[in-house]
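Its record is quoted verbatim for completeness.
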Amino acid sequence: MSFNVFYTQGRLGGDPDFRMSKTTKEEYCIFQVAYQYRRNTKPHWLPCNATGKTCEIIKELGIKKGDLVTIRGSIYQYGKDDDRKGDCPRQHLYCKVYQLWILAAARTTESKHFKDVEQPRVGGEEAPPFA
């Protein structure tokens, strides 16, 4: 028995592109996530797609380019071709997203995630500031 479960964390390379499937008439979205194996290395780009309820949630949350996300999904292959030298085939992979967590919003001043909102204090005025 094998499991194809993949977790990664990275920033979105662009706003999700929402499309409608021609065969199933179901909405889906595609986007890319940049992730790194080690600090100070070139990022890798992973194409991702989400369908069904996951796609609806992504649309509802309004994630956009630069948001830091964690993804749980499965890796699939969608094509092969020869590399530039022609000596070894390359595989093209994508991630079918099942869950997505938004960790941080994009680093922009107009982001709706950075509005200053005063949180209500629990326990009344005598509650410590860290409660």
In short: The CA atoms of residues 21 and 117 lie 39 Å apart. Residues 109-131 have pLDDT under 50 and may be disordered.
